[in-house]
Amino acid sequence: MKLIDLARRAAVLALLATGLAGARPAAVPSYLFYVASESDDVVTLVRFTPGQGLVAEKVIPVGWLPAEIEAPHGVFVDPDGSTWYLTLGHGFPFGHLVKYATGADTVLGMTELGLFPATVSVPKSGGVAFAVNSDFHGDMKPSTVSVIDLETMTELDKVETCTMPHGSRFGPDGMTHYSACMMDDQVVAISLGTLAVSRRLDLVTGGPPATNGHAGHGAERQPCSPTWVAPHPDGRRAYVTCNKGHEVVELDLESWSVLRRFPAPKAPYNADVSPDGKRLLVTQKASAELSVFDLESGERIAVIPSTRTVTHGVIASPDNRFAFVTVEGVRGEPGTVEAIDLGTMKRVSTLDVGKQAGGIAFWKMEGR
Q1: Phi-psi sector, 226: left (phi>0), alpha (psi -120 to 50), beta
Q2: Taking a C-beta distance cutoff of 8 angstroms, is the pair 265, 284 a contact?
Q3: Measured distance CA(229)–CA(179) in Å, rounded
Q4: Residue 243, Cβ neighbours under 10 Å: how many?
Q5: How sure is the predictor about 220, in pLDDT bands with cuts at 50, 70 and 90?
Q6: For residue 3, pLDDT beyond 70
Q7: What is the pLDDT averaged over residues 20-32?
């Protein structure tokens, strides 16, 4: 071999050795999200790191009425990640929406809403929030969805929808808001452009509501009692949990019709679609389980029992690897957060938080 070839070879080997010596193992990501505990007036910032588990990064006291449990219920992080929003269900007589800075978790503003505001959401464009006034403890009459300007924290409008609205979520284009009517068996769409109801669908019959936009409750009807709407990332479908009908209804948002019905025994409650659109995650409140559905086949492919009773909220991680579940517990039990590995379909970590853990919202990933 010529001397010049030997020199070149030595130089290449030296470069490789330098690169290998400087290489570092890939960072293990952490996942951060907020969990609201309705019976303890706290929100917990939770961190999950694979191999290390769930930890409480911070416990944030919320509310300001010392003699009143103010019931933090719905939590949502703004799409830009800079702020998060919390509904307080109790008040005199009305509840509130509170705006916080993420990280610092300091209050930036608040506004009064309606009777027991529950779930809240913000479109991808930001600027406004929609909060459903569920009125859980009032008369069985149509209630409203509050529209809030997030810059000034003022309520712009209350849009009347149905009896006991719940499950506030925007479609991926941010132009249509969807909510369910727990006592009217409907799903309702509100246009962001007009701030008015644009469509309704009776989830029992799959057609228009029977009278005046509000369903009847005759003996011939098998109730749905919908509690959540989870839009699909493709913008063409959405999934509604029928808590009393023990099924999940798949909607075609373009034709505004029912595509499929998935059996989901034992009171399905909240739901989330994985960002890749392949799986539907459904909490089952009565059986304290998480069900995972394959959306191509419509089959339920896994059932993961919770560690305590009354399974409530669920979110999928942005990388589709994990599900994070809240469990309320009963009596004097603390609430629980559970991390589920969606590859193995096994629970990999649990964390005790404040009582009646419910609302859950993803903030960010670190270390990717």
Answers
A1: beta
A2: yes
A3: 6
A4: 24
A5: low
A6: no
A7: 71
Report, as an integer, the average pLDDT of 85-97: 91
Q: Which of 109, 204, 217 is nearest to 154 (CA)?
A: 109
pLDDT tens digits, one per residue of 296-315:
999 999 999 999 999 999 99
Whether the pLDDT of residue 2 is over 80: the answer is: no
User: Rounded to the nearest 10 degrees, how much is the dihedral formed by the CA atoms of 217, 121, 314, 270?
Assistant: 0
Residues with Cβ within 8 Å of 193's Cβ and at least 6 positions away in sequence, in order, are 175
Write phi, then psi, for 254 (nearest 5 degrees). -80, -50
Phi, psi angle pair for 18, to nearest 5°: -65, -45
pLDDT in tens, 247-260: 999 999 999 999 99
Pick from 33, 43, 108: nearest CA to 72: 43
- HSE-up of 21 (CA within 13 Å, CB side)? 6
- Residue 209: both structure tokens together: 């509501």
> CB neighbours of 106 closer than 8 A, spacing ≥ 6?
100
How far apart, in Å, are the Cα atoms of 131 and each of 75, 108, 127, 287, 363?
Answer: 10, 18, 14, 28, 19
Query: Residue 171: pLDDT band by 50, 70, 90 thresholds?
Result: very high
CA neighbor of 81 nearest in space, from 52, 103, 51? 103
What is the C-alpha end-to-end distance of the chain, expressed in Å?
A: 46
Q: How many C-beta atoms lie closer than 10 Å to residue 272's C-beta?
A: 23
Q: Is it the case that residue 45 has pLDDT exceeding 50?
A: yes
Instruction: Inform me whether the pLDDT recorded for 284 exceeds 70.
Output: yes
Q: Give backbone dihedrals phi and psi of 297, rounded to 5 degrees, phi first.
A: -90, -20
Residue 151 has pLDDT above 70, yes or no: yes
